[in-house]
Amino acid sequence: MSAKQGAPIIIIRKRVAHHDDEHGGAWKVAYADFVTAMMALFIVLWLLSASEKVQKAVGGYFLDPSGKGRQTGSTNAGSGETLTLKRDDLKDLKEKLEQVVRQVPAFQSMKNQIRIMLTAEGLRIDLIETEHGLFFETGDPKPTAAGTDILKALAAELLKLPNKVAIEGHTDSRPYGRSDYSNWELSTDRANAARRVLSGLGMEESRISQVRGFADQRLMKKDDPTNPSNRRISIIVRNMGLDHQEETMAESQPAATDIPEPAAAGNAAKSSH
Description:
Elements: H1 3-6, H2 19-23, H3 26-49, H4 52-63, H5 68-72, H6 87-102, H7 107-110, E1 114-118, E2 122-128, H8 145-158, E3 165-170, H9 183-200, E4 208-213, E5 232-238, H10 242-252, H11 265-271
Parallel strand pairs: 3-4
Antiparallel strand pairs: 1-2, 2-5, 3-5
């Protein structure tokens, strides 16, 4: 064996420097800062051209980003218009109204016809009819004496609240029987009659958010559309600021573009000759 064969084998590995590991990520940070700055610029430009209500709504979010104000029912400046009551507050109000209604002399005959429940819109109070009426005479938009007493008892408590109120009228699917007066008119007139009772007891008109007539389009018993319980008046104690939010959303919708009018028939005739 020669000397060359006995010599150890030496392997030399060259390390190639990766410059990207040292400073290749710096451009990414700079680019991210640039994108963030551009986004902030676009938001500022959009807010400058937005309506005052939209600006208040955005400002309210930054004043209360966690939403704690909406949960506690506080009235922080700038965000007070978008606040809602705590669910516990609505539960307390529900219990209070139930106690008040029980004190009405006619309650025993109608206790199964009054339903108070929490919904996404707020606290909903349904006054549900029977076969023989109860809150309204059959086919009549005028409240009965018992119906008026219940509305007055509810109004006494609702007047203590700052919340706005919506009133709904509903009918069953039986045709009204007149060509000039349908369930649409009846449901709306009954809701308006309830509104007049509340207003007559001191509820300001500005607190009446909406008066709705649904006819038979929102049946409680869809499998039995002529059931008397489909006839009802509903009073909704709306969450604080809900009207403002709906108005803001409506104003933020893009305006409908004008549809060009078709060419006149005379112009078309001229072009064809």
